[in-house]
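Submission sheet (multi-component)
Chains listed below:
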Amino acid sequence: MPQHHHPQFQIPDELLLSRLAAAVNDLDAAPTAPQARHAFALRRPDAAVAELRADTAVDPPVGLRDRSEPDTRPRVLEFQAPQLQLRLEITTHGRRRDVVGQLHSTPDVTSIEIRWPTGHHLRPVATDGSFSSPAVPAGPFSVLCHRRSATPVATTWVCV
Amino acid sequence: MDGPTGDGPDPAFLVDRAEANEVTAWDTLVQRYNQAVWNVARGMGLSRNDAADVQQTVWLRLVEHLAHLRDPACVGSWLLTTARNESRRLRAVDARTRPGHRPGPDPQNHQDPERHVVARDQMQMVLRALDTLPDPCPLLLRLSVVTPDLTATELAAATAIPEHRIAAHRRRCLQRLRTRLDASPANPSTDVVHTHPGSAPNPPADPAN
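Outcome: structure written.
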């Protein structure tokens, strides 16, 4: 047992841990599970997953590290699946997010579904592969790309 | 050490059944790991709002990856690693838009008239002391007390501490917490904390220990 500065008391580990358990469980328990259960209802086993390849929030462009000023540029997310590349620009307005997207090399995408846990927007895709969606709530979101004659592709869920 | 967490069905079996669209298997996975996922986010300093977003993102990620997990038996480690990565992502988003801002702990204050006010104050003090300890102590201690049946592999995934060093880290973190509490104005080591029955045993501190 390490030396302790207090002259009289040393709370035993078990007591300290039980107090800690009471504090965390009573004051800071996880929100109830319905949200996690609901996630299962959003399952799209038919869709291929486009993985996140780049996120300027985590890997800021060179020259933008250690800024002391808030970075007001859109956050850029890049996703990739075998036949699809997708670039998203996310702009923050309080708890609302505006999304502007650009698809690359995917002529067969017919429409875009911007999804969040409690809703979705269906958006058309312009001939140059661009699309946009205003007013997406902050939190997890995903883009589902519907294709003319192939399985849909969904971006992995990311918090925005 | 690498076996399934606690009692109940094997995680690989649950992943398999959930993939076959059995919602009860999914619910069992949620029940087993939800608190741990939440405490990874909270232990990494996220607000309750951000932690709730991470929690939901992690479960959505598992939904989409059910069929593609490299090792379904390690779904616990996968969930906790994902929780860790997404918590770091949200911290980075926060740092980007609000440089210098460090989100503080914000425990929810449930109004519970039956609970002893003094006990509540003391629990809040313990939680505050916990969440202001240096990393990785808030994370490691939260996981140790809330989901004590996590495997060493799962703990290592959640904390990025090598398995063989977790016990030493936990000892050091407990000692830091003890020192922090001793330095607090209302020292709980000399008071008995009254909580409702079944919450935690609260014998008086033993001076002989």
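Remark: The radius of gyration of chain A is 22 Å.
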